[in-house]
Amino acid sequence: MFLRLLAACFTLVVAACATPTLQAQPGTLVIVGGGLEPDNEEVFKAFLDVRPADARAIAIVPAASGAPSQAANDFRKALINFGADPENIRIVELAMLDDPQTAEIDEAEWTGGAKDAAEIAKIAEAGAIWFTGGDQSRLTQLLIEDDGRETPMLAAIRERLNIGAVVGGTSAGAAIMSDPMITQGDTLAALLPDAPGEAVRFDRGLGFLNNLLVDQHFGERARLGRLAALLTHERQPHRIGIGIDENTAIKVTAGDTEALVLGTGYVTLLDARGAARGSGTRFAVRGMSLSLASSGDRISLADGRIEPAPFKKATIGNEYFGRATVSGGGMALGATSLAEVAGEALLDNSAARKVERQSFSGAHGVTYRFIQTDASQGWWGRPPEGRAAYALSAVRFDIEPLDIIMKKAEN
């Protein structure tokens, strides 16, 4: 009996050693579409408040910036304004370019920071890690080896996220969240032959957010078309993309499929899984599904379903407008934002089931077509403090090419 009891005790001890009693919890991503204002309490609090209780340190990685010290110090000041302890904030010395604002420091000497033990230690102690804006390619060049292996610093960041830290970033710091990531590109150049602007390109990202393509400065730079072009690109694996406006963020638990929207603008989810790209030489796509969300809404990153903020009420069946829509484009036509076109003119308008807008450059153009389907849903509301906003889901979105012929009218 004694030997059996001893054996049982030994088995329990071995099992306890082999199986941790506390499972590590995944961390949180706070992804900002750029243009983060220093007074955006909703976003800053979201970043600060989810730090683990036993890891209050904050690491700022300014590698994407052309003025790394200035970018890091600006973010540091904003954190302090929202209650962060200055003693907890560390600036990680990782950069490619010298900051002209700091004559006493040559930040171009920080290129080896991703392998420096002292800099990696700043990450290893952090409960929050932030990537500033700038050029996302600088970040990947510094954090990924030439042979494709992750640097020790990137491995440390991933480990911190996996055990509960919050990782956030703005602009370039948002682009790197997906893999591949968008590195450049203008919408008209993506959609039209011979249009001026940068060609759309993508490259390896850091992939903290799985199975999704992230775009930023979305509404401000009219990037809906470029996201549509990339989501239907044959060499780009993801068919769902999310576009985040400036001063706007999503907060998502790592590994989860639902995001909370924060800030002043909109978040657009575009689903191309059921879409058909045209087979001609000109870009065309039919059957994409579009959703739109704003502060307080929750959006499914898997299919674009919206859980609207409590203050928003359904628009379909309670439409505020009942007027014929105008098809066109340009400065003489009002209400051209995505929320106004797909929200106000379509899902909040009993007289419309389809809205079209045109854009062109030279002799070529495109029609953006938004269609209300039986699955479409819309909401509108105004929070106790703040601006009224729409939320939309399952709006069909097509892009078709146009040829433009213009001549001066007789007058």
Automatic annotation (TrEMBL):
MF (Gene Ontology): carboxypeptidase activity; peptidyl-dipeptidase activity
Signal peptide: 1-24
Catalytic activity as recorded in UniProt: [L-4-(L-arginin-2-N-yl)aspartate](n) + H2O = [L-4-(L-arginin-2-N-yl)aspartate](n-1) + L-4-(L-arginin-2-N-yl)aspartate
This protein's UniProt keywords: Carboxypeptidase, Hydrolase, Protease, Serine protease, Signal
Pfam families: Peptidase_S51 (PF03575)
EC number: 3.4.15.6
Family from the record: Belongs to the peptidase S51 family.
Main function: Exopeptidase that catalyzes the hydrolytic cleavage of multi-L-arginyl-poly-L-aspartic acid (cyanophycin; a water-insoluble reserve polymer) into aspartate-arginine dipeptides.
Protein name in UniProt: Cyanophycinase
Native organism: Qipengyuania aurantiaca
Biological classification of the source: Bacteria, Pseudomonadati, Pseudomonadota, Alphaproteobacteria, Sphingomonadales
